[in-house]
């Protein structure tokens, strides 16, 4: 065996993280030119440009490879070729942070966690955290998630959307082989539905750290916390804290309206009374506030009519009793 062949065998026998990421800087990008560059799919041509091997015996044609996943959001998928991470486009520009809200508290809580790694190590504690966001639909849980995504990507980290337990474990094992110290946020949207669709024990085992997944935050959301049992709601180390993301208060509504309208001067130009909008929308969700802007400022609806329409949407809708027992459709009998 010549020296080049020997070198190839030595490289292929190295652990994955050493083979692909040869320094901590590369494992956890910290340079501005790495972190701030948006995900660019154009650099991947789709052509086979090199060979890859897992054992030094079987070589497969491969497209362009990179040392680490670009910071961003991903969903773990599988194909006949194995596990892969599919990039998800998530808007993180133009987001609003509302002061003195639970949304802001969640962001600060996770930021504080990332800064305490050495203390977790000192006490030999698992470096992971679990947080539940709950609240009515349209209250701003998605906005909070987007803000957290922006924060973790600035740290060179990734957000992984939780789908199935088996896919998640396989994907995380691969990720940690290659990038053992990259910050990870696991997004478990509608966790009540996840627990219904999959074996609850397999999900709980992941949360309990059976695979000892390091440097990770589990972030779950639900509109229906009453559907979650004590094994989720009352079990620190699975989910350590829970935050209600309720409807925006008056200060937050004013911030939102000023932002979406384009400033107070723009509001005056359009003849909009920001204070009236804020007072008339108490109890409205962010989704309702956005629709008020669209209806009045873009579609030209009358303000009072738009408020009335949105207010009526919050009422509980039930079918009239007179329709009970009647057939419906084109072939129904009168």
Describe the model.
The chain is of the alpha/beta class. Among the domains are: 102-244, 3-Layer(aba) Sandwich (Rossmann fold), CATH 3.40.50; 250-313, no CATH class. Helices cover 41% and strands 14% of the residues. The chain is built from 16 helices and nine strands. The chain has helices spanning 3-12, 16-20, 24-27, 32-35, 102-114, 117-122, 141-154, 165-178, 191-197, 200-207, 230-233, 250-261, 264-269, 274-280, 286-298, 303-313, and strands at residues 50-52, 60-62, 72-79, 82-88, 128-134, 158-161, 184-188, 216-222, 241-244. The radius of gyration is 25 Å and the shape is globular. The model is unreliable at 11-37 and 327-334 (pLDDT under 50).
- Measured by DSSP, the beta-strand proportion falls in 5-15%
Share of residues in helices: 40-55%
Averaged pLDDT: 81
Distance between the termini: 88 Å
**CATH-assigned fold name of one domain:** Rossmann fold
What order do the strands of the largest sheet run in, or round the barrel if closed? 4-3-6-7-8-5-9
Structural class: alpha/beta
- The rough form would be described as globular
CATH architecture term of one domain: 3-Layer(aba) Sandwich
Q: Please mark out the parts with pLDDT under 50 across 5 or more consecutive residues, or reply none.
A: 11-37, 327-334
User: Biggest β-sheet: count, sense, barrel?
Assistant: 7 strands, mixed
């Amino acid at each position: 065996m010549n020296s080049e062949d020997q070198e190839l065998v030595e490289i292929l026998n190295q652990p994955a993280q050493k083979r692909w990421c040869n320094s901590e800087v590369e494992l956890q990008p910290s340079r501005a030119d790495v972190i701030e560059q948006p995900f660019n799919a154009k650099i991947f041509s789709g052509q086979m440009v090199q060979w890859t091997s897992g054992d030094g015996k079987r070589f497969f044609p491969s497209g362009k490879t990179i040392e680490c996943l670009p910071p961003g959001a991903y969903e773990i998928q599988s194909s006949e070729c194995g596990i892969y991470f599919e990039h998800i486009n998530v808007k993180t520009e133009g987001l609003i942070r509302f002061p003195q809200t639970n949304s802001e508290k969640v962001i600060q809580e996770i930021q504080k966690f990332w800064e305490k790694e050495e203390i977790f190590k000192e006490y030999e504690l698992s470096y992971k955290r679990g947080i539940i966001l709950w609240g009515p639909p349209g209250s701003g849980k998605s906005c909070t998630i987007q803000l957290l995504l922006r924060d973790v990507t600035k740290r060179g980290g990734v957000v992984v959307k939780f789908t199935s337990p088996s896919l998640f474990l396989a994907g995380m094992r691969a990720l940690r082989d290659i990038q053992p110290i990259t910050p990870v946020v696991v997004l478990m949207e509608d966790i009540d539905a996840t627990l219904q669709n999959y074996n609850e024990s397999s999900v709980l085992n992941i949360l309990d750290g059976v695979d000892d997944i390091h440097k990770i935050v589990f972030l779950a959301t639900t509109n229906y916390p009453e559907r979650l049992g004590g094994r989720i709601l009352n079990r620190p180390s699975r989910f350590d804290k829970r935050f209600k993301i309720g409807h925006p208060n008056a200060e937050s509504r004013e911030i939102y309206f000023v932002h979406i309208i384009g400033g107070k001067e723009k509001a005056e130009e359009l003849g909009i009374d920001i204070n009236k909008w804020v007072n008339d929308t108490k109890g409205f969700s962010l989704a309702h506030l956005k629709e008020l802007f669209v209806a009045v400022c873009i579609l030209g609806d009358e303000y009072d009519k738009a408020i009335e329409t949105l207010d009526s949407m919050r009422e509980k809708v039930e079918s009239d009793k007179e329709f009970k027992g009647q057939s419906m459709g084109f072939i129904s009998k009168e």
